[in-house]
């Protein structure tokens, strides 16, 4: 066997090991998910090999020949996204949520602008200002109320009055509760009518699609930026929504040619399929996710684990935030959980809550079949790790649970 063939076999073997490991794990990473077989079928396509660049907002004005059907697929995906989210304009070209965020800043900001932005997200303006390019933006953190696990509205309103920021970016990489969109937009209108409110919906896009979370565009956000694969469960990528044509045009010119030339077309049919699923069974899908998150938070709490959002029902999203200071350091606990086949991430906490937390999302286990009555058993496994109980025993229980969660629910076929 030559070296190249050997290397191919090594790659295949690693993929097999990965698949077998993940099939035997409970995946509780809040930003991942599993697409339906229909969406996967639509993802594997000739489009992965083609170019479909276009500038501006007219997706039929393509630079490359051969796009007659590709443009129709993209148009269909746009129509479904507009219907699903009640948006007048959609852009599916960003290749990730991060690129969607950078595009929104390039489109709507100017050098020297002040940007108020949440701390527990991507901090797009901060990244640009501290990059080697040193983009001239003043990034100010939005004050956070740890007890309510939400934006501190009064302090943020004071900052808007004081700094009159051009951009305010809310949303979060750890989203437990809806955020005060209306109140912030009202203050921005008063103190800087030319400013823009950008809402990073990446984590909760599926819950918004299922109408079980706030609707940011209808509450006053000028732009929604998002990825397409977290609660939304589509192929990996980014998207931007707005109801304002001038904003859509500015965003289009920031995306292409600056950030994305060809927009990886194989995502488009799979995204259209994802939007169809949410239009068809989105409300029951989103409700099941939130009910499971509340049930798991409640079960952990009953077992002596403190959580963020106590007194507020712990969560209104797919995510829960256990506070693990009394059990150890967050990363070490995440490693112990992984040793028992529970995949979850460590998370920083607001000072009022402590130091070490775990970010747990139930969207993937929900899709695979978890129902509320499974929460006590999952909580027992997590608590077993927190108390350092017999890892082999916990791992055996987790693998049995993972094997039980072997469905893909909330699909066109299952309705
Ligand atoms: N923001 C990262 C996360 O929440 O895991 C992924 O984009």
Structure description:
The chain has 415 residues and is α/β, with parallel strands linked by helices. It folds into two domains: 38-274, Type I PLP-dependent aspartate aminotransferase-like (Major domain) (Aspartate Aminotransferase, domain 2), CATH 3.40.640.10; 281-414, Aspartate Aminotransferase, domain 1 (Alpha-Beta Complex). The chain is built from 15 helices and 14 strands. The protein has helices at 3-23, 37-43, 68-85, 97-108, 124-129, 153-163, 181-191, 205-209, 216-219, 245-259, 267-302, 330-339, 363-368, 375-386, 391-404; strands at 26-27, 89-91, 114-117, 138-141, 144-145, 150-151, 167-171, 196-200, 223-227, 238-242, 319-320, 342-343, 345-348, 356-361. The strands form four sheets. The protein has a seven-stranded mixed sheet with strand order 2-10-9-8-7-3-4, with helices on both faces. The protein has a three-stranded antiparallel sheet with strand order 11-14-13. Helix 2 packs antiparallel against helix 11 (267-302) and helix 6 packs parallel to helix 7 (181-191). The radius of gyration is 22 Å and the shape is globular. The chain starts with a helix and ends in an 11-residue tail after the last helix. The model has no long low-confidence stretch (mean pLDDT 97). The structure holds D-serine. D-serine binds next to loops. D-serine binds at residues 31, 97, 173, 227.
């Amino acid at each position: 066997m030559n070296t190249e063939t050997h290397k191919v076999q090594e790659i295949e073997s690693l993929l097999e090991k990965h698949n077998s490991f993940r099939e035997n794990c409970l995946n509780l990473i809040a930003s991942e998910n599993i697409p339906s077989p229909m969406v996967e079928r639509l993802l594997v396509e000739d489009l992965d090999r083609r170019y479909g660049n276009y500038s501006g907002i007219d997706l039929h004005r393509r630079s490359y020949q051969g796009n007659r059907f590709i443009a129709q697929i993209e148009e269909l995906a746009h129509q479904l996204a507009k219907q699903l989210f009640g948006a007048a304009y959609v852009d599916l070209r960003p290749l990730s949520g991060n690129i969607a965020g950078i595009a929104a800043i390039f489109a709507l900001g100017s050098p020297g602008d002040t940007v108020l932005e949440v701390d527990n997200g991507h901090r797009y303006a901060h990244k640009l200002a501290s990059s080697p390019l040193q983009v001239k933006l003043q990034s100010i953190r939005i004050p956070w109320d740890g007890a309510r696990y939400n934006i501190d509205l009064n302090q943020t309103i004071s900052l808007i009055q004081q700094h009159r920021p051009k951009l305010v970016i809310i949303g979060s990489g750890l989203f437990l509760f809806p955020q005060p969109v209306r109140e912030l937009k009202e203050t921005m209108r008063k103190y800087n009518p030319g400013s823009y409110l950008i809402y990073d919906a990446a984590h909760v896009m599926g819950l918004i699609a299922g109408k079980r979370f706030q609707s940011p565009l209808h509450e006053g956000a000028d732009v929604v930026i998002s990825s397409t694969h977290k609660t939304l469960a589509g192929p990996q990528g980014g998207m931007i929504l707005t109801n304002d044509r001038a904003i859509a045009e500015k965003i289009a010119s920031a995306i292409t040619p600056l950030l994305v030339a060809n927009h990886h077309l194989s995502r488009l049919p799979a995204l259209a399929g994802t939007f169809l699923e949410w239009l068809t069974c989105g409300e029951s899908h989103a409700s099941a996710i939130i009910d499971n998150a509340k049930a798991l938070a409640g079960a952990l709490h009953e077992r002596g684990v403190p959580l963020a959002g106590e007194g507020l029902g712990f969560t209104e999203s797919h995510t829960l935030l256990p506070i693990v200071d009394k059990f150890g350091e967050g990363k070490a606990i995440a490693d112990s959980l992984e040793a028992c086949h529970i995949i979850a991430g460590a998370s920083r906490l607001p000072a009022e809550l402590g130091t070490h937390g775990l970010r747990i999302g139930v969207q993937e286990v929900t899709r695979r079949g978890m129902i509320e009555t499974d929460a006590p058993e999952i909580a027992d496994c997590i608590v077993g790790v927190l108390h350092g109980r017999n890892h082999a025993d916990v791992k055996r229980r987790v693998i049995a649970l993972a094997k039980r969660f072997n469905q893909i629910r909330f699909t066109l076929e299952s309705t």
